[in-house]
Amino acid sequence: MTFIDFIKQLFIKKEQPQIISYVELNNIIPYVKNQAGKIVLNNPNLKALDSQYALLTKKQVEDFLKSDWTNFRLYRKEKFDCDDFAIILWGKFHEKFGNCSVGFACSDEHAFNFCVDESRKLWIIEPQTDKIFTTSNKKYEIKFAMI
Asked: Fewer beta carbons within 10 angstroms: which end of the chain, N or C?
């Protein structure tokens, strides 16, 4: 942290993020079905570990991913594979933003991250490439989610 960043923290009032409750998340995640032909979710089992989460903007997520290097890690089958990428990225988001609306998810064949933005839209985050998207691809059909 630079001296200027330190001064900004002291004197510039930060805008408070919107908050979403785990109840709202439970209503968003299982019921977003074929949203404009995009994400299809099959009633995933969402585990919310806290009662409230700060909603990040898509721009905040994009900016963070530009500064994070998790996607540059070496993929190693069964040693550092998709679930490891997703768990590490999930932790880094929470380390930077605190209790935020980025989570960990699994389909039948893949592990990845997701985010609910300030508009309560669900985004998939591919931790191995830093892509943010919506899709109906079965590879990203959430069967288990934790936030």
From this structure: N
